[in-house]
Amino acid sequence: MSDVLSVVERTIDEHDLLAPDAVVVGVSGGPDSLCLLHVLRRLKEHYGLHLHVAHLHHGARGERADEDARFVAQQAAAWDLPATIERRNVPQLAHEHGLAFEEAARRVRYAFLARVAGEIEAHRIAVGHNADDQAETVLMHFLRGSGPAGLRGMLHRTRLTDYRLLEPFDAPPQGTMAIIRPLLDVPRAEIEQYCAEHDLSPRFDRSNLDTTYFRNRLRHELLPLLETYTPNIRTRLCHTAAVMAADYELLAELRKEAWAKIVQSERQAAIVFDRQAWRALPTGLQRSTLRQAAYRLRHSLRDVSYVHVENARQIALNGETGDQATLPMDLMLTVGYETLTMAPQDHTRPPPDEPLLWTEEPIAVHVPGETALPESEWTLRSRLLDAWDMTQIVENENDWMAHFDADALLEPLVLRAREPGDRFRPQGMEGHTVKLNAYLINEKVPQAWRDRMPLLVADGTIAWVCGRRLSEPFIVRRKTQRVAQLWFERRTV
Fold first, then answer.
1. Residue 380 pLDDT exceeds 60
2. Which of 2, 422, 464, 488 could form a disulfide with 190 if both were Cys (CB 3.0 to 4.6 A apart)?
3. Cα–Cα distance, 125 to 166 (Å, whole number)
4. Is residue 77 part of a domain?
C-alpha cells in the first residue's frame, strides 16, 4: 500500500501548511485533486479543518466538462462537504485578453478559488500539484531561461498577495490567504495507486494527452526521453527545486537590503535606481533587482528571460544617457545622468526640451540666487528688480520667465514635483482653486512627464506651475513693493 498519507502529513508539518481553519480545496475531479480531498478529509479531525470543495467549469470540452462538474458535486455531497460549483467562459476570456487558453484558465481558476476563500473566510486554498508537476515546472522554466525564481518551481505555500496569475480577472486578495500544495512531494504514480487502493474513481481529462500544449509535450515526450539518460530525472529536478528555493530565500534577503540602498523612488508607473549604487552591486543582485523592478511594475508578469535581463544589465552598465533596453510587457529601462528608470515605454519616451525634475526631494530656491536642477542642463536664476515696467511684465512672452510679488514668496521656497491632492489658484480665475492634475490634463501635458514638471512652492503654496501659469496670490500688482524675477536658463558647456 502506498504511504501517501504519511508523506502528506510530513509535508504539512514541515512547511506549516495547515492550522485549525476553513480550507478551500480546488477539485477538478482528476486523480490528484480527488486524492487530495480524500487525504484532507482523513486528516480534518487531526488538524481541525473545515473543508469546502470548489470546482470551476472552464466552458470548454463540452459534455465531458459538464460530467466533471456533476461528479465533483456528487462526490462532495457523498462526503458531506459543502461545495461551490461555477462556470466561466474561459475561451472567450482568453480571446478578449489576448491570452493562450492554458494561461487564461489558470488565471480564472485562481481568481475563482480566491473569491470562494474570501466568501467563507478561509485563509488557505489547497490544490493538487504533485512531484511530477514540480519536475515538469522546473524543466519548463529551465527551457525558458528562467532565473532562480523560476528554477525553484512551485512552493509548498505561496501567499496570494504574491501570486501574479489573478490579473486581469480579479483583484489580488489581501491578508494572509495562501495557496498550499500538500501533495507536492508525492509522485503521480503513488497518487494513482492511492486512488485505486481506496476505490476512488477519478475523472480523466483527455486534454492532458494533447501534445499541442507545451506542458503535455514535456510530460509525454521530453521527460520520457530524458529518463533514457537519467532514470531518476524527475527526482533530480525536484531536488533542484528544493535547493533553488532555499538559495532564493537568501538571495531575497540580500536583494531586500540592496533595494533599500539603490532605489531613489518607487511609484506605480516607474522605479528609479541610483545608477552608481546599482553598478556597485554584485552581478547576481544587479540581475535580481532588475527582475524585481519588472515584477513590481507588472504584477501579472510570470517571468523575465535571461536575454532580456542581461541586455538591460549591459545597457545599464555601459550605456550612455538616453540609451534604453526593452523588457517584456511594454517595459523599458532608460539610462539617465545618474539614474536608471524602469517604466512603461510611454513613460520613458524622450523628454520634452524643457526643465524637468529628476529628483524626488524638494530643491531649495534662494532669491536672489541660482538653483541648478540635478541631472539636467537647466538652472533656475532669480533676482530682485530695482525697478520694473508693469507693461513689460504683462507682455512677457517667455513662458519660462515669471515675475512675482517678492514679499509673497515666503520661506521655505522650493522647487518640487507634484504631490497627491495638489491644488492652486491660476492667475486670471478670480481666486478660484483648481486641482493641479485637472489643470495639467486641460493643458495637454503628457502624462509621462506630469510627475517631472517643476513647481515653485512658497511656504507650502504653489506659486508657479513652471512654464505654464502663475498663482493669483503671487502676481505683481500696481501696489507691489518688491518684484522678484525668476527664469530658467540652459547651462552652456
1. yes
2. 2
3. 14
4. yes
DSSP annotation of 376: S
Cell of 344: 512603461
Same domain, residue pair 293 and 216: no
pLDDT at residue 51 above 50?
yes
**205 touches 102 (CB < 8 A):** no
485: which DSSP letter?
E
Amino acid identity at 219: R
| 212 torsion bin: left (phi>0), alpha (psi -120 to 50), beta (else) | alpha
Q: What is the pLDDT of residue 14?
A: 95
| Full domain range(s) for residue 300 | 262-344
309 and 372 in a single domain? The answer is no
- From CA 462, how far away is CA 362, in angstroms rounded? 13
Whole-angstrom distance, CA of residue 179 vs CA of residue 177: 7
Q: Who's near 376: CB < 8 A, 6+ residues apart?
A: 337, 355, 356, 358
Residue that is written with C-alpha cell 493562450 in the block: 100
Is residue 123 included in any domain, yes or no?
yes
CA 52 to chain centre: 30
DSSP per residue, 290-349? HHHHHHHH-TT-----HHHHHHHHHHHHHPPTT-EEEETTTEEEEE-SSEEEEEETTTSS
In a domain, 237, yes or no: no
On whether the pTM is more than 0.85, the answer is no
Sheet holding 271-274, edge to edge: 263-266, 271-274, 339-344, 331-335, 324-327
CATH number of the domain encompassing residue 120:
3.40.50.620
CB within 8 Å of 279: residues ≥ 6 apart: 286, 316, 317
Cis preceding linkage at 426, omega within 30: no
Same domain for 219 and 132, yes or no, is yes
What does DSSP assign to residue 399? T
Span 319-356, pLDDT tens digits: 887 788 988 888 999 998 788 999 987 665 555 678 88
| CA-based nearest residue to 417, from 269, 278, 276, 260 | 269
Residue in the block written with cell 497518487: 191
